[in-house]
Amino acid sequence: MKASDFDEKFDAGEDVTAMLDLEKARRPGLEQKRVNVDFPVWMVRSLDREAHRLGVTRQSLIKLWLADKLQHH
């Protein structure tokens, strides 16, 4: 199928998911990269308290706060 035919079907609101190979789908710019960061013990304890208060993991809290800070820059 030509890309233009696919685009027409998509633009018309047709379900095109059967035409996609979702196993190979990628979200450019959102790939994961593992990094290691060392924090002082007091900071880890504070992060854990706040994460517990919000009902999220420490990692999720750090990601949320970093994303918020980076969006405001």
Short overview:
With about 70 residues, this protein is mostly helical.
Describe the structure.
This protein is an all-alpha fold. It has one domain (3-26, 37-71). It has 3 helices and no strands. It has helices spanning 3-11, 41-54, 58-71. Helix 2 (41-54) packs across helix 3. The longest helix is centred in the middle third of the chain and has 14 residues, at 41-54.
Counting helices, strands and paired strands, the structural category is: mainly alpha
Name the beta content range.
under 5%
Question: Mind summarizing the main beta sheet?
Answer: none
Spatial shape: elongated
**How many distinct folded domains?**
1
Compressed to H and E, one letter per element, the order equals: HHH
Mean pLDDT reading: 93
Task: Tell how many strands the DSSP assignment holds.
Answer: 0
SS field, number of helical segments: 3
Give the CA-CA distance, first to last residue: 42 Å
Helix content: 40-55%
Radius of gyration over alpha carbons? 20 Å
Uncertain runs are none
Show the helix and strand layout.
Blueprint: H1 3-11, H2 41-54, H3 58-71
Entry keywords:
single chain; about 70 residues; mainly alpha; 3 helices; about 50% helix; elongated
